[in-house]
């Protein structure tokens, strides 16, 4: 996985720089998400791996599928990826672009998995606390996992906060066994 990130990072940075200069972060975000989704289709994956097609033919076929969602610059980006045999990196490029966009906009997507649904006031308090902790605007996405017994798991970027009963019991057992 690290290799994919390493290969995709320069393309994501280039796309981000261009989008930022053109004041079109949201447009590029949507275009890359669409292209990434198209590239993950089984038939498109077969097309991209077809050794009989030239890079230009791959780009043309790919663009014929999603050209309505791409600007001229987006089409040129797809052609560049095809020329360098990197169309398969589109999902990773899109994910890295979203990270760069979130950093630039000082936002953070936070996933909360709790044993029971969060009330509106709990969600609001958690959003405020996390916004203060990370010094960013937080977009909270919550889900329920009844197997947690109680508490919640919070995932914010690379940070994971395990405040579940199961997690606390595991820490206690580990401390007692040390």
UniProtKB/TrEMBL annotation:
GO terms for cellular component: plasma membrane; proton-transporting ATP synthase complex. The keyword Membrane applies. The keyword Ion transport applies. It is found in: Cell membrane; Membrane. It is a peripheral membrane protein. Pfam families: OSCP. Its main location: membrane. Belongs to the ATPase delta chain family. This is ATP synthase subunit delta. It comes from Microbulbifer thermotolerans. The lineage of its organism: Bacteria, Pseudomonadati, Pseudomonadota, Gammaproteobacteria, Cellvibrionales. The gene is atpH.
